[in-house]
Specification:
Layout: H1 2-19, H2 77-82, H3 84-87, H4 110-123, H5 125-128, H6 137-140, H7 152-156, H8 159-168, E1 169-170, E2 173-174, H9 182-198, H10 208-214
Antiparallel strand pairs: 1-2
Helix pairs in contact: 4-9, 8-9
The structure holds heme C.
């Protein structure tokens, strides 16, 4: 019985200790058992510094010679946004979820397709496979929901929506906007269309001399 009371008392003390002070405020320095990275050897900007490498004794570093101030395009968001090239969206259709541009705004050239192939093989093939049928290496590793990009739904999709999927991802696919710059995304879209076309062609698309040879 003694042990029961001891245990009972300790568990009440522990419960109160852990939950009783939640939401309370204190101005005292918190007790840091593991101080993680809360305290770091760092310098605050524009303060004194005794760091031997900084001969002028100031924490902020001067710009290297020849530095040119840049106006970042993203700052002017409306102009940036109104160019379908950047977003895959045509805001003249309205600010609606499905305002994707129908056709790739970049002229389709053989260089663009080459670049698209190069980027596709790096960024998309691991999951979607070289033939875009969803049979990449990750399937063998257990990722079973990778989309088959020959699906009629995706074939009919506007180019802008595929651009958007590359940028932000979709459902379980993560976005590649941070890894693949805008022009490369359009190159990938163009190349993906070429892969899709490769399974949509008929005998009539084959030039006559080549068809002769095939027979
Ligand atoms: C890490 C694996 C992975 C990579 C890499 C990947 N995808 Fe995906 N992708 C998926 C998965 C999984 C889905 C299915 C998402 C869902 O609907 O759950 C998908 C779906 C899609 C879809 C269909 C979206 C829809 O509307 O249903 C498109 C288009 C697509 N991917 C294009 C690409 C392109 C282009 C690349 C290369 C830039 C790429 N993916 C890279 C895993 C990947």
């Amino acid at each position: 019985m003694r042990y029961f009371f001891l245990f009972f008392f300790l568990s009440i003390a522990a419960t109160l200790g852990i939950t009783g002070f939640r939401g309370g405020y204190s101005t005292r320095t918190p007790l840091q058992v593991f101080n993680d990275m809360k305290n770091q050897a760092k310098l605050r900007p524009q303060t004194d510094s005794t760091f031997p490498g900084f001969a002028d004794g100031v924490s902020s570093r001067p710009f290297p010679a020849g530095t040119v101030a840049q106006q970042v395009g993203y700052q002017d968001n409306t102009t940036w946004k109104n160019d379908p090239f950047n977003t895959g969206r045509d805001f003249s259709k309205g600010d609606i979820p499905n305002n994707f541009v129908e056709v790739n705004p970049v002229p389709i050239t053989s260089e663009l397709l080459k670049r698209g192939q190069d980027r596709y093989l790096i960024y998309c093939q691991p999951c979607h496979g070289a033939q875009a049928d969803g049979n990449g290496i990750t399937k063998k590793l257990g990722m079973s929901t990778v989309a088959n990009l020959h699906d009629p739904r995706i074939i009919k999709m506007n180019d802008g929506e595929i651009f958007n999927t590359i940028t932000y991802g979709k459902n379980t696919m993560m976005g590649y906007g941070g890894n693949v710059p805008v022009p490369d995304r359009w190159a990938i879209v163009a190349y993906l269309r070429a892969i899709q076309l490769s399974r949509l062609g008929s005998k009539d698309d084959v030039p006559a001399p080549v068809l002769e040879k095939l027979k």
